[in-house]
Every structure is written in structure tokens, then in C-alpha cells.
């Protein structure tokens, strides 16, 4: 990662001040994303996720410009995260306690800043100190670059999931154990 890129942690209250910047970067990453990747839907998603206890954001900035971010939160016992999961999954896989699973919801890097190690740095910074026994994320099965990165960071595919939102794609469900992150 470039030495001029700085990482910063934010809780939900701090992140509310930069929501417009977060949304703008999201739209730069998904410029032709259709209804599922629309500004309105993402603002609702982000606002809902920010209400989750333990929600955390890590931003990457260069010369004051937001160039990437990652955020997530622990899944509560009443989570709807697993709605739309395809079967079969291991027994008890979707049972949550609020401390079992950290959901990595977004990991985004501005297109002009990609392939510089920023995604890996954000990933490792956000997940490196988590206490949950595992993490999960939903990955586009056709995003081969992201899939390769996730595998190199210790993620493995469990099944597929299609969120209930209109126009939601079918995602791969990936998990990785908590604790130390592998380098790479």
C-alpha cells in the first residue's frame, strides 16, 4: 500500500458526518449497478447497518480524498443476514449470538486506486482485531479478482445466498475463522 494512504477507524456517530462521501465512492465502484446498486437503496442499507451494535468503519484516505473503505458489524441473535441462504449448510450455521459472527458488509476501493494493496489493508485493519469466532461476507461469484483476494486472505465458500431486496443478485457466502489474519 502506498505510504501516502492513511487508515482511520470510525464508529457510527463519526461516520454519519461522511455518509455522502461513502455513498459517492460506492456509486463510483458500481456506476451501472441498476436498482440494486442505486443510491437510494445503498443509503437505506448503510443507514440500517450503522444502527447495528458494534458497527465499525475503516476508511482509507490519500491527500484528504476518500479512496476506499470497509465496514461491518457483529450479527445479532435476531439477524436477517442469513435470509435467502441456499441449503444445505452445516447444522447451526445460521445461529447467531451477537458475538459469534462479524459480517463484512462492504469493502470498496475507488477504481483509480485499485491494485495498490488498499483493499487488503482495509480488510486486515477491520478484521485484524475482531473477537468473533468467525467472519462472513457475500461475494459476487463473477468478480474473480475479489474472489482470488478473499481466498488468499483465508476465506472459503460455504453456499449461496440471495438477499430479499428487489433485484438482489445471487452471492457466494464466504466465511473465515476469527483470530490472526494470514498475510498475502
Automatic annotation (TrEMBL):
<dbReference type="InterPro" id="IPR000182">
    <property type="entry name" value="GNAT_dom"/>
</dbReference>
<keyword id="KW-0808">Transferase</keyword>
<feature type="domain" description="N-acetyltransferase">
    <location>
        <begin position="7"/>
        <end position="177"/>
    </location>
</feature>
<dbReference type="Pfam" id="PF00583">
    <property type="entry name" value="Acetyltransf_1"/>
</dbReference>
<dbReference type="GO" id="GO:0016747">
    <property type="term" value="F:acyltransferase activity, transferring groups other than amino-acyl groups"/>
</dbReference>
<protein>
    <submittedName>
        <fullName>Acetyltransferase (GNAT) family protein</fullName>
    </submittedName>
</protein>
<dbReference type="InterPro" id="IPR016181">
    <property type="entry name" value="Acyl_CoA_acyltransferase"/>
</dbReference>
Amino acid at each position: 500500500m502506498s505510504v501516502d494512504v492513511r487508515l482511520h477507524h470510525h464508529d457510527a456517530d463519526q461516520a454519519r458526518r461522511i455518509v455522502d462521501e461513502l455513498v459517492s465512492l460506492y456509486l463510483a465502484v458500481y456506476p451501472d449497478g441498476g436498482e440494486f446498486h442505486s443510491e437510494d437503496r445503498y443509503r437505506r442499507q448503510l443507514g440500517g447497518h450503522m444502527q447495528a451494535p458494534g458497527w465499525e468503519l475503516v476508511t482509507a484516505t490519500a491527500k484528504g480524498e476518500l479512496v476506499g473503505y470497509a465496514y461491518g458489524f457483529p450479527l445479532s441473535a435476531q439477524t436477517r443476514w442469513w435470509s435467502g441462504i441456499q441449503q444445505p449448510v452445516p447444522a447451526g450455521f445460521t445461529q447467531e449470538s451477537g458475538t459469534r459472527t462479524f459480517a463484512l458488509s462492504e469493502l470498496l476501493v475507488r477504481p483509480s486506486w485499485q491494485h495498490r494493496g488498499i483493499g487488503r489493508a482495509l480488510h486486515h485493519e477491520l478484521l485484524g482485531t475482531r473477537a468473533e469466532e468467525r467472519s462472513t461476507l457475500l461475494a459476487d461469484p463473477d468478480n474473480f479478482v475479489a474472489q482470488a483476494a478473499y481466498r488468499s486472505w483465508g476465506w472459503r465458500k460455504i453456499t449461496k445466498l440471495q438477499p430479499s431486496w428487489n433485484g438482489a443478485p445471487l452471492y457466494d457466502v464466504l466465511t473465515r475463522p476469527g483470530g490472526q489474519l494470514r498475510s498475502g
